[in-house]
Every structure is written in structure tokens, then in C-alpha cells.
User: Which sequence fits this backbone?
């Protein structure tokens, strides 16, 4: 298959898969996410553990399996 | 196929107590696991605690046919092994080393396994909340479903697959190694930075890739092998082996979990059929998993033993193609069909642009969030805030966990609904022996002395013990024993089973 045909085949298959929507079309992020992004990042500002530096340094686990 | 599909996962969670004077992960894990017993309303709390039947455990049996010397610390003798809960959903919840660990019940398909793994996250969260009430007001218990502390300590997410004893272990190694090494492009959870002395990177696909140091071996804790040889089927060992896959990441994304177990069980079917041999054998698998983990395009070729150069996408496509070609119509159940479709979907999209899957696969979802946050604050990759976000993506608290926030806001692909996950906390799958185990625990707990994956010990009328072996994991289903279990007493059940056995 030529690359062009292959891409066409890929696209067709993707469109046929129900309930699965690609997030990025032509390199752009999906609109719903972009719209929510600011409030989401605000939220992260709020809920991210305070003093990340200290927390990350003190998070030490014993190795498991 | 000769051997029915039976599979399960075990997840070790990271644990930390905020504002504790000193970290004691064993005590914290014990507190959490024990708290679950006290907060359940489905089993009378006065009932005798059911213990785990360790007689059935042989963790040092090697798949290559010998019994090994201990090369890793074994927990079974220390006090933490006393903390053990057999769940009415058929799973197991206990303290392993210094981590709370949840094992799903045996499942017969990928969707059920996803469901029961997700039920485990809720079980951990319910018990975390209950345990936190016992601590000082300013203390918080934090639990992460991830695999690393970024300081070279890793804890595992293992998958288990029942296989026919007839398949030579060498054939499994040959057929599975290239598959496991390349599947991280689908199953990786993403990690900021690197550790364990491996080559540096800002961000990589897999949490665990840095920790694998050899190709095949028994150990799971030091000098970890890509293919683990533990051979402990918890079933009739003349018929079965249990393949213990230790190379996977802990996933949050439902699609990542679903595909991880779905495509791996399909790959194993292909190996059992003998259609995957040495055709994909990699030249250097240990180096390959590390370089694939660092290639966010998923397109850089890796070298096969025969000199061919294939990208991880191409290797995965080759397995997919064999599955489409060789699975029989009976094997292509609706769920297997769906797994094949979604497998193709993610490979197609990875090939066009991995960012197309930023609602679907953990490593891409996480990367999208990190990129956006980096841009907002101008952070470099080594900034502690990004590592914090990486950890918090795996936080199981609904108000703190970043993955859970994305899920609630509709930014990740869902395959399950919440009600069925809650149901799976309390009821076993119906089509494996987990049904027998879970239903017996629900109905007859006072009469049960101990249990394990393949045994249940009942307390007899005269105080003696009656052991029932469950050596066929696909027996004990609702179809076979449902009516019996729901219409008899514990004594009648024993009598009936004994009667059948002696005939």
C-alpha cells in the first residue's frame, strides 16, 4: 500500500471504531479539553501537595516486587 | 483452545503518612488493610477471621523445572503475613513487604479483569479513609497506584495467566519476550525522569523499564528479569502453569489495563498454538525496553536477532496480524473481538501521532497534563512540581488524584460505569472458581477456617477441619454450583462435595 492509501485506510478504520474519539486532529488538542484546561490547571495549582520539593524528596518506599 | 482463559492481577501500592514523625510503611499498610475489615457492612464483623492457607504456596518453584534456593527475601515468615484478608469478591487483600497489595479474583476475560482491578482501587480508598480516622488530625494517609519512588525503589504490578503445562517454557520465552518489550507503548504509565542508573531522559513511557536487568529469572525484587520463571499455578500442576508477568506498569487508564491483559492473553494463545516462534526474537531485549521507553514517537526501529529493524508499533502489528489470522471463531468472543479492534485502533493512532491518544493511554494522558502545566509555569522537566504531578496522577483519593479528576471531568476514555465497579467490590466473577470462594465466604463465613487460591478449609460439625481443593480454576462457577451454594447449609455443602468425590 502507498503511504497515502495506508493513511486513508487508517483514518477509515479509526472512524469506524465506536466510542473512541481521537483527541488530537491535525496536531490540535480537542476543544473540550482546551476549554477546560485553564480551570483544570487552576485546580492542579490548588490540589498539588504543598511544598512539592520536600514531599517528593521525602517519599521513599521500600522496594517491593 | 485447550486451556480456558483465566487471569488475574496483583497490585502493590505505594504508601506514605503525611506529617508522621517517622515513616513506618509496614505499620501504615497494616492499618489500611485491617481497616477494611472493620468498615465493611456485608460481613458481620464478629465473624471469625478467615486465615490464608499457606500450605498451598510454593513461590520458589521455577518454571524451568527445579525448586530454587531463596534469592529474595520472603515475606511469608514475617509478621506482616498475618495481615491477610480474603475478599467476598474472591480477591485477596494483604500486606506484602511494606506495601498494601490487592489481588483480583480469577477472571475469564479482559473486561472482568479490568473491572476487578478497578474495584481494588475503591477497596484501597475505602480502607484508606477508615484508617486515616485512627490517626492524628493533621496526618494523612497517601496511597499511590504507581511503581516507583524515583529513588530506585520499585514495587510491582503483576499479571498472571493460566497456561497449559504442555507448552515448553522456552517457547513462552521466545514468543513472549518481543511482545512484552514492545507492548509498553500501550501499557506504559509514563514517568518523569529516570533512575536506577539508566540513561537520562526528561520523560519516558514506562515506570518500570529502568528496573529490568536480565532476560529470564526467578527473582522479582532484585536483578529483575523481563520474564519471570515463578511456577506456582495454584492449581493442578500437572495440567497447568501460571505465567507470572512482572514487567508491567500500574495503570490508571481503563483502556491501558483492558488492553494490557487482553492483548497479552491473546499473545499467549498464539504461543500455545505454536504460531509465534523465534521470528521476532530481539537482539538485546533488556536494552530495547529502555530505549523504547525513551522514544516518545514509538517509531525508532529496534534490532532483531536476525538483523531486521522493526519499530515497536510494527512488532505489535505483527502479533495483531497473527491473532487476526489464527484465532478461531470460537476464540473470537465478543470481548476478544473488541480487544482486537481497540488494539488496532491504538496502533493506528500511535502511528499517525501518539497525541491522538491523550484521552486513552496513561503515558500520553499524563504527558498532556504535564506539558500544559509546564507551559503555564515555565517549569523545567527536573522541577519538583512535575514529579509531584507524576505521583499525584496515581493518587487514589477522588479529591486529590489527578487521573480521577480528569475522569470526573470527562477527559479520559471510560470503558466501565461506576455502579458495576462498586458491585465488583462485593460480588465475585461468576465464571471461575472465584465464584465458589466468594460465595462461600458470603454465605458460610462462620464455618470457614482458612482459604487460599485453590483450597477452602471448613470447620466441621465436630470441630475437625474439612479441606476442599479447587484445582481447576474454571470450575466452581455460578452455572455449576450457584444453585447448590444458595440452597444449602455449610454442612450440606461439605456432605454433597464429599459424596461426589467418593463416588
Assistant:
Amino acid at each position: 500500500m502507498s503511504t497515502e492509501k495506508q493513511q486513508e485506510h487508517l483514518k477509515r478504520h479509526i472512524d469506524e471504531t465506536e466510542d473512541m474519539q481521537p483527541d488530537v486532529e491535525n496536531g490540535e488538542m480537542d476543544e473540550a479539553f482546551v476549554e477546560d484546561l485553564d480551570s483544570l490547571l487552576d485546580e492542579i495549582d490548588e490540589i498539588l501537595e504543598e511544598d512539592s520539593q520536600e514531599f517528593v524528596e521525602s517519599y521513599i518506599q521500600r522496594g517491593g516486587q | 483452545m485447550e486451556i480456558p482463559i483465566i487471569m488475574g492481577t496483583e497490585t502493590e501500592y505505594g504508601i506514605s503518612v503525611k506529617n508522621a514523625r517517622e515513616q513506618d510503611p509496614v505499620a501504615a499498610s497494616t492499618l489500611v488493610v485491617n481497616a477494611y475489615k472493620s468498615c465493611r457492612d456485608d460481613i458481620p464483623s464478629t465473624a471469625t477471621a478467615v486465615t490464608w492457607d499457606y500450605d498451598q504456596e510454593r513461590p520458589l518453584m521455577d518454571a524451568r523445572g527445579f525448586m530454587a534456593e531463596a534469592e529474595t527475601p520472603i515475606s511469608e515468615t514475617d509478621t506482616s503475613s498475618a495481615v491477610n484478608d480474603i475478599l467476598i469478591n474472591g480477591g485477596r487483600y494483604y500486606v506484602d513487604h511494606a506495601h498494601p497489595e490487592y489481588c483480583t479474583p480469577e477472571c475469564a476475560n479482559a473486561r472482568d479483569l479490568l473491572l476487578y482491578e478497578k474495584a481494588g482501587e475503591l477497596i484501597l480508598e475505602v480502607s484508606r479513609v477508615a484508617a486515616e480516622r485512627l490517626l492524628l488530625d493533621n496526618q494523612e494517609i497517601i496511597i499511590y497506584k504507581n511503581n516507583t519512588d524515583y529513588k530506585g525503589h520499585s514495587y510491582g504490578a503483576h499479571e498472571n495467566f493460566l497456561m497449559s503445562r504442555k507448552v515448553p517454557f522456552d517457547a513462552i520465552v521466545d514468543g513472549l519476550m518481543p511482545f512484552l518489550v514492545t507492548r509498553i507503548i500501550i501499557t506504559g504509565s509514563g514517568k518523569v525522569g529516570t533512575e536506577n542508573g539508566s540513561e537520562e531522559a526528561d520523560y519516558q513511557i514506562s515506570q518500570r523499564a529502568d528496573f529490568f536487568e536480565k532476560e529470564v529469572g526467578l527473582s522479582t525484587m532484585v536483578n529483575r528479569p523481563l520474564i519471570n520463571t515463578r511456577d506456582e499455578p495454584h492449581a493442578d500442576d500437572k495440567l497447568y502453569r501460571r505465567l507470572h508477568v512482572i514487567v508491567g506498569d500500574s495503570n490508571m487508564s481503563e483502556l491501558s489495563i483492558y488492553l494490557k491483559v487482553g492483548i497479552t492473553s491473546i499473545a499467549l494463545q498464539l504461543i500455545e498454538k505454536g504460531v509465534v516462534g523465534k521470528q521476532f526474537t530481539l537482539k538485546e531485549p533488556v536494552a530495547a525496553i529502555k530505549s523504547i521507553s525513551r522514544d516518545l514517537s514509538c517509531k525508532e526501529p529496534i534490532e532483531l536477532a536476525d538483523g531486521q529493524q522493526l519499530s515497536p508499533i510494527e512488532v505489535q502489528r505483527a502479533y495483531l496480524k497473527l491473532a487476526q489470522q489464527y484465532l478461531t471463531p470460537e476464540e473470537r468472543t465478543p470481548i476478544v473481538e473488541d480487544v482486537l479492534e481497540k488494539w488496532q485502533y491504538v496502533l493506528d493512532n500511535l502511528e499517525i501521532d501518539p497525541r491522538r491518544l491523550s484521552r486513552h493511554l496513561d503515558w500520553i494522558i499524563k504527558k498532556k497534563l504535564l506539558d500544559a502545566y509546564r507551559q503555564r509555569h515555565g517549569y523545567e522537566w527536573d522541577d519538583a512540581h512535575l514529579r509531584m504531578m507524576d505521583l499525584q496522577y496515581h493518587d487514589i483519593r477522588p479529591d486529590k488524584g489527578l487521573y480521577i479528576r480528569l475522569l470526573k471531568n470527562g477527559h479520559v476514555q471510560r470503558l466501565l460505569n461506576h455502579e458495576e465497579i462498586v458491585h465488583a467490590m462485593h460480588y465475585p466473577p461468576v465464571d471461575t472458581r472465584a465464584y465458589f470462594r466468594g460465595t462461600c465466604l458470603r454465605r458460610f463465613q462462620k464455618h470457614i477456617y482458612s482459604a487460599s487460591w485453590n483450597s477452602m478449609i471448613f470447620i466441621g460439625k465436630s470441630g475437625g477441619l474439612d479441606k476442599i481443593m479447587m484445582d481447576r480454576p474454571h470450575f466452581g462457577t455460578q452455572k455449576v454450583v450457584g444453585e447448590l451454594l444458595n440452597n444449602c447449609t455449610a454442612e450440606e455443602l461439605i456432605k454433597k462435595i464429599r459424596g461426589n468425590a467418593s463416588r
About this structure: The interface with chain B takes residues 7, 10, 13-14, 17, 19-25, 27, 29-30, 32-33, 36-37, 40-41, 43-44, 47-49, 52-53, 55-65 of chain A (CB under 8 Å). Confidence is low (pLDDT under 50) at residues 13-18 of chain A. The two ends of chain A are 45 Å apart (CA to CA). Residues 49 and 56 of chain A are 9 Å apart (CA to CA).
